[in-house]
């Protein structure tokens, strides 16, 4: 009570500069020394490991998350469940049969169809990229296994994933429409290891799914070298994932209650589910860890003006279901701003905002508080990620803390996404940036929630 | 004929400095621009791929090698076969059952025994290293699955593989003797990827082999984190390799005939076989490629004094059989010097010699010719590697061109040993160093073969 009154008294001062107990600079610098985020990431990846949406492992992750968030002192910790269409991996093997027999390292894409139980063997037809596949006549493809390459390279802002992502998102459906019996792609990875990159694909309505798998980059190189020799290639594939029917997923929610219930919610989070191949360290134990650790910094310093809601989303990977479920359930609640951490664990290098007019003063305060961490202002195009994006599209404020993505697609969606890929120092820089952002946004004296607060 | 007479006339001059056509400096610098080695490494890893000793793939590799060496212009190209005890990989899967169920990335060690066909599930007992395993009483181990860690770190000269190698070479036999039902080790790798490192183990006479597998480093980290929590661990393993009975392997031999048959042979080579997981690029397509490419540089410049014999050994990995077979068959032939390339494809940084008194003048000539490539003189402890080591131990001259091993154990014996791991520039530096060495040794006027020439 006393704390609450103190915060209200401090309000006029906040208009000039952030006041105790939530001085952004002080909290930011203290957060650099906090290991809460590391502890969360270590615990989730060790004690749960892989946690595919809809699986028993994801359900265990929710139980783990509730216990962890309660133990950290958060309030109103609870799970909001929803159903998803389940999909799970089966066997997956592949080989070059001719001209040079040898095994291939590959993995099924999410939503892939299956080969027959004893596999499929067919001639390969290869395309350099999606455009070449699109341009090819169906009679060149019918009855064959399609290969599609891509030229994705690392980019700090991850933008390469947009354009080149079509090879995974669209090529399988196009190949299926043209009569291919299966498809293998050069996966969306910037590494050169025998660890193929999975990720979701989607078949257009009316298209019967075919087996769709990603090759590791060294395997794609091998295919392309043989293609360059002009030799006909035959592949054998055994890929047997299946649709399981409806499965339960859920979002785990925790709060730092604010002193001003009418000021709108500051929603932050990452996603709790992961692909099944690795232990989901950079995607996205890091994101849930960073956001919860930053919220805890604020909580431990005293009550902020606004309620901070930490959401650990379920089923982001296989269809963005958790984000949509949260929006559908909470859309009547005013949100002052939304922010997601879902791009690894490397340092924040830029912040992006998408703010309504009343919230414009936040930008300068963010710039000042984040610059000492090496973070610059972007071009005003925040998206709030896959899970909180619906809010920005519906008009809420969005603030992105953009992580350096130069290494992200080296291990993204592979078995190699494990705890050792997280750099503790860069993880702490993330927590510091999020703490500073929360100190500013959760305490901002302006009316942020589109005039609703 | 004319060339031969010219070489003989040039002999007195060679005592002062290397004369045309084999000027070490000129040939060395020309070799930096030659892509023969790359072409061999690319061809072998692409057109054959994995080539486990005794397999059909290794036999195909011999056919490929004979054709390649003939097409390069070598003389007396032939295969010398021998039998080996065959071993081949079966299924291999593992998982933590309790306390935190999740799959493990592992691979059987060469010569591993098998679990029952439906696997084995047992409590884990963990040791930090081989010394701790050795010190433990049998009743602590009986009926359990043993885990043994190791602290191997990269070293430029690869020396870490000696000491830490005991975890792979010896721990399985020790664990079996003490009644373990299976063993998993932290593999001998310096990377942090989910690609476990295989390699040979040996069970002592009278010890019944147990299933023995290597975990990738991230998986070993995971086990050690849970051990550190003090939680009892149960593992499930399915590892079903088998001994196949006798299989045929063979050495592929090619020569650059010398002008002086009595001057002893200069024997160089690498090994043609590889582990079955990768395509054997750095281990050891690089070695066969480097040595053949260097010999071709000499051949193309004219006939050297001594015959250069290029040997692409079979079955190095599983038991060093090819090297022993060559020694047993050829030990009556005087060898002027022996040198093997079997430590990857990174640059040569040091040369080592082990020379008889008459051959001592070679050292200074090697030092002068190799220094411009950044190569320094070692401490006089050449070993000539696994395949040609028997010759050095029997008193022949040995010359080692030591490659930089700081990255070697990142991919050594994994599925990740693929062509992309070879740096073409560093490969060319190797060829240049070997060319300079051959120009000096094959033409040296001294009597090198222990007084037998």
Automatic annotation (TrEMBL), chains A, B:
One Gene Ontology molecular-function label: carboxypeptidase activity
Origin: domain of life: Bacteria
Q: Does the keyword Transmembrane helix apply?
A: no
- Which residues constitute the signal peptide according to the record? 1-18
Which compartments does it reside in?
A: Endoplasmic reticulum; Golgi apparatus; Lysosome; Secreted
| Domain Peptidase M28 residues, every copy | 251-434
Give GO terms for biological process. proteolysis
Instruction: Please tell me one Gene Ontology term that the record gives under cellular component.
Output: extracellular region
This protein's UniProt keywords: Carboxypeptidase, Endoplasmic reticulum, Glycoprotein, Golgi apparatus, Hydrolase, Lysosome, Metal-binding, Metalloprotease, Protease, Secreted, Signal, Zinc, Zymogen
What does the record note on quaternary structure? Homodimer. The monomeric form is inactive while the homodimer is active.
Q: What name does the UniProt record give this protein?
A: Carboxypeptidase Q
């Amino acid at each position: 009570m006393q704390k609450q009154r103190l915060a209200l008294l401090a309000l006029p001062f906040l208009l000039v500069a952030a006041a105790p107990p939530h001085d952004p600079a002080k909290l930011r610098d203290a957060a650099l020394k906090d290991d809460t985020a590391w502890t969360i990431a270590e615990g989730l990846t060790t004690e749960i490991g892989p946690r595919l949406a809809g699986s028993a492992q994801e359900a265990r992750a929710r139980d783990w998350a509730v216990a962890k968030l309660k133990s950290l002192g958060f309030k109103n910790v609870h799970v909001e469940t929803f159903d998803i269409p389940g999909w799970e991996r089966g066997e997956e093997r592949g080989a070059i049969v001719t001209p040079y027999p040898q095994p291939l390292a590959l993995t099924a894409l999410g939503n892939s169809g299956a080969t027959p139980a004893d596999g499929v063997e067919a001639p390969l037809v290869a395309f350099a990229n999606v455009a070449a596949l699109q341009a090819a006549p169906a009679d060149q493809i019918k009855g064959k296994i399609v290969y599609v390459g891509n030229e994705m390279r690392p980019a700090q802002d991850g933008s390469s994933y947009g354009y080149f992502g079509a090879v995974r998102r669209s090529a399988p459906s196009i190949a299926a429409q043209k009569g291919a019996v299966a498809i293998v792609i050069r996966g969306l990875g910037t590494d050169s290891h025998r660890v193929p990159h999975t990720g979701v694909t989607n078949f257009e309505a009316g298209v019967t799914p075919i087996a769709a798998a990603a090759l590791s980059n060294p395997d794609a190189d091998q295919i392309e070298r043989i293609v360059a020799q002009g030799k006909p290639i035959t592949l054998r594939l055994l890929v047997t994932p299946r649709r399981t029917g409806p499965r339960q997923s859920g979002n785990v929610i925790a709060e730092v209650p604010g002193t001003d219930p009418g000021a709108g919610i500051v929603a932050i989070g990452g996603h709790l589910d992961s692909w099944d191949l690795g232990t989901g360290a950079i995607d996205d134990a890091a994101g849930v860890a960073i956001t919860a650790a930053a919220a805890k910094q604020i909580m431990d310093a005293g009550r902020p003006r606004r309620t901070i809601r930490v959401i650990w989303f379920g089923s982001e990977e296989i269809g963005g279901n958790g984000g949509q479920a949260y929006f559908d359930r909470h859309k009547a609640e005013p949100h002052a701003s939304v922010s997601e951490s879902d791009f690894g664990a490397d340092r924040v290098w830029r912040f992006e905002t998408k703010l309504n007019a009343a919230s414009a003063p936040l930008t300068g305060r963010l710039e000042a508080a984040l610059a000492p961490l090496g973070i610059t202002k972007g071009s005003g195009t925040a998206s709030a990620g896959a899970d909180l994006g619906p809010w920005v599209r519906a008009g809420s404020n969005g603030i992105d803390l953009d992580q350096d993505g130069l290494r992200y697609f080296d291990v993204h969606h592979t078995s190699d996404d494990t705890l050792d890929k997280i750099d503790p120092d860069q993880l702490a820089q993330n927590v510091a940036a999020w703490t500073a952002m929360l100190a500013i946004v959760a305490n901002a004296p302006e009316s942020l929630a589109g005039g609703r607060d």
